[in-house]
Amino acid sequence: MKILVLHNQYLIGGGEDVSTQAEVDMLRSHGHEVDLVLLNNHSIEETSKWRVALGAIWSVKAYKLVLQKVRTQGYQIVHVQNFFPLLSPSIFFAARKGGAKVVVSLRNYRLICPNAQLFTRDEVCTRCVGKMIPLPGLMGKCYRDSFSASFVATAMLSFHNFLHTWQRQIDGFICISDYVKERMIEGGMPAEKLYKKYNFIAEDPGFNERPKDNFLYAGRLSSEKGIGLLLEAFSSPELAGYDLTVVGKGPMQPEVEAMAARHPNIRYEGPLDLRSTYRLMGEAYYLIFPSRWHEPFGRTIVEAFACGTPVLASDAGAARELISDRTNGLLFTRDNVASLIQKIRESKDDADYHQKRQSARRSYLDHFTQETNYSQLLEIYGAVSRECNAYGNLPAQ
Predict the structure, then answer these.
(1) Across the chain, how many H-helices and E-strands are there?
(2) Domain with 379 in it
(3) Edge-to-edge, what's the strand order for the sheet holding 172-175?
(4) Is residue 112 part of a domain?
């Protein structure tokens, strides 16, 4: 199968970039011809703001690029990972005009929320969901706390809502969790075009049967990720004898460094490479995933499972479907420090702890391996193509 993958990278790399490359590598390893086109937001610094704004709504350059590629290379599938802001939804029109089927991975809430998070002003927000013109996002300056940036995001959504772009130009959406799928249906996306496929871990880090007794946080250091809640918990007298290791970077790094300097039970390791992070995950007693927003997936949860480490997570977003409470981890009440402290203390008196490590590992093997993911992706490609045979191959064109 010939596949064109398109992805607009962020200024700060994250799980979407990792998942995109993992899918490309997986498809290539199974013999598919995959071309990857990457655009990077660093190029925005060299472009005038008005040109970026107009291009986010409709990029003539990206349209021409995709149309030319599809027509000359004969791609059967155009798989879009992230289109905002440099690629724009114009690429969907180009791919369809060129004769390809269009698949879009929904790794955030971009199609129903101007800032793509359903979280603004330090709280969960769904005021724009289902609205043809998402004015609350504009008036609240939800995207980057900027009226101009929010105007661009709102204008892009409004324009393509009126054109029914999502319904008419896209053949299939890949939702990375049931939670995302449910939110998209609420936002007006066609349910018959929505498919669920979890992210996967490309390289098995291995099961660690001999953990230490510390807790681990690994991820972006920002408010919506719950790092403030976590610091509040481990700086409290109730958890004075409990150790927390923090890995990552982000806007709240100064607060993390200050807390680590004042509290000997909090250690900040800074940002680490993936192999070093996996080592700490395998050694951790629990990974803590304290997100305050409704995470579409939760890659670090699955990475911890692969290491055999159970996860203590807030009961928000996709975490509720990834974690079976008291089986492969524990759930606490979102945005509630008392609930978090209670669950941390409870975890240390757990007679079934080692069984939870086995269950965490089993969750990874059953649902988040490359082999499982490949078959699911080919089924989705087959569903949108309608010409695929059972092995995902299309007739020569």
Answers:
(1) 16, 14
(2) 2-107+164-200+369-385
(3) 33-40, 2-9, 77-82, 101-106, 172-175, 194-196
(4) no
The CATH number given to whatever domain includes residue 378 is 3.40.50.2000
pLDDT(24) > 80: yes
Instruction: State the Cα–Cα distance between residues 176 and 179, nearest whole angstrom.
Output: 8
Q: Which helix (H) or strand (E) holds 174?
A: strand 172-175
Give me the torsion for CA of 80, 85, 90, 91, rounded to 10°. -30
Q: What's the domain count of the chain? A: 3
- Do 381 and 348 have their domain in common? no
Q: What is the reported pTM?
A: 0.93
Residue 394 pLDDT > 50, yes or no?
no
Instruction: Residue 189: name the closest of 172, 214, 213 by CA.
Output: 172
> Residue 226's Cα: distance from chain center in Å?
16
Ordered DSSP codes for 44-102? GGGS-HHHHHHHHH--HHHHHHHHHHHHHH--SEEEEEE-TTTT-THHHHHHHHTT-EE
Do residues 381 and 355 both lie within one domain? Answer: no
Contact status, residue 387 vs residue 395, Cβ threshold 8 Å: yes
- pLDDT at residue 396, rounded to an integer: 34
| 196 CB-near residues (< 8 Å, 6+ apart) | 174, 175, 176, 177, 178, 181
